[in-house]
Design brief:
- The chain has 2 domains: 87 residues, 3-Layer(aba) Sandwich (Rossmann fold); 134 residues, 434 Repressor (Amino-terminal Domain) (Orthogonal Bundle).
- It is an alpha/beta fold and 250 residues long.
- The protein is built from 14 helices and 4 strands.
- Helix 2 links the parallel strand 1 and strand 2.
- The N and C termini lie far apart (50 Å).
C-alpha cells in the first residue's frame, strides 16, 4: 500500500468529515483484497465495502475474509461490468449461492426491473390458453436476454449453479442465437402455425439461419414438449396437483 496515498486520504478525511468511506475491492484477487482492505481500514477507518467480480469468487472466500478482518459491512456486490449489475449485499443470498442453492429473490428483483410486464403476461396467458406460438416464444426469449448473461441467470436458480459452470457462457449464448435465427428465418405463417413445417420448409429455414435441419427439428421438439406440458396444466386436476406439490415447499 502506498503510504503517501494513505497520508493524502487521511488529510482528505480530516477536512471533509465524510459520512461514508467505502472501499471497492476486487474479489478475484483473493488474499490480496483482504490485505488491501485491512490496510485501508487501519489508515482511514472504512465504513463499508463494495466487492466486485463476486460472480467469479464461487466460494465467497473474499467476502467472508474481508468482513472478518475489517469488521465493517459489505454494502454492495458487483456481478458484471454495467451499473445495473451492482446490487445490494444480502448475507443470506450470498450464502445460498455459495451452497449451490441459487438466489431466486435477486433473480425476481432483476426480472421486475427489466422485463416488460405486459409482454410477460400476454405470453403466460397464451401458454395457459394453448395459443402459444413460435412468434410468442421468440418474444419471450428476447425478454429473457434482458436478465443478463445466461450463465448468471442459471447460477441464481436452485440446483443450476454447477450446470452454469459446466456449460461455457459462449455455448449458452450461441444456442440462444441459433434459436432466434431459426425462428426469424420462418415466415409469419410458419411462426404462428408450426404444423405446416414440412421437410422442404425445414431445409429452407436451416439454410436461411445457418443451422442444420437437425437443429430445426430439435427446436420444434422442445416447443411441442412445452405446449404439451401447458395443455396438461390446463386440466383443473393437474393444476391442483401442482399447487399441492408447491405447497409442500412453503
Amino acid at each position: 500500500i502506498d503510504q503517501a496515498l494513505m497520508d493524502e486520504l487521511s488529510q482528505i478525511k480530516a477536512k471533509t468529515n465524510p459520512q461514508e468511506i467505502l472501499l471497492v475491492a476486487d474479489a478475484m484477487t483473493g488474499q490480496e483484497a483482504v490485505r488491501v482492505a485491512e490496510g485501508f481500514h487501519q489508515q482511514v477507518g472504512l465504513t463499508g465495502l463494495i466487492l466486485t467480480k463476486i460472480d467469479g469468487d464461487a466460494r465467497g472466500g473474499a467476502a467472508i475474509s474481508i468482513r472478518s478482518v475489517t469488521g465493517v459491512p459489505i454494502k454492495f456486490l458487483g456481478t458484471g461490468e454495467k451499473t445495473g449489475e451492482l446490487e445490494p449485499f444480502y448475507p443470506d443470498r450470498l450464502a445460498s449461492r455459495i451452497l449451490g442453492m441459487g438466489d431466486v429473490l435477486s433473480l425476481l428483483e432483476r426480472a421486475e426491473e427489466v422485463i416488460d410486464e405486459e409482454v410477460a403476461e400476454r405470453g403466460t396467458k397464451k401458454l395457459l390458453e394453448g395459443n402459444f406460438t413460435l412468434e410468442d416464444f421468440l418474444e419471450q426469449l428476447q425478454q429473457v436476454k434482458k436478465l443478463g448473461p445466461l450463465n448468471k441467470v442459471l447460477d441464481m436458480m436452485p440446483g443450476m449453479g454447477e450446470i452454469s459452470k459446466a456449460i461455457p457462457q459462449e455455448d449458452l449464448e450461441n444456442q440462444l442465437k441459433r434459436t432466434q435465427a431459426i425462428i426469424n428465418s420462418m415466415t409469419r405463417q410458419e411462426r404462428r402455425n408450426a404444423k405446416v413445417l414440412n421437410g422442404n420448409r425445414k431445409k429452407r429455414i436451416a439454410t436461411g439461419s445457418g443451422t442444420t435441419v437437425q437443429d430445426v427439428n430439435q427446436l420444434l421438439l422442445q416447443f411441442r414438449q412445452m405446449q404439451k406440458m401447458m395443455q396438461q396444466l390446463r386440466n383443473p386436476r393437474a393444476r391442483q396437483n401442482l399447487m399441492n406439490m408447491l405447497g409442500g415447499f412453503r
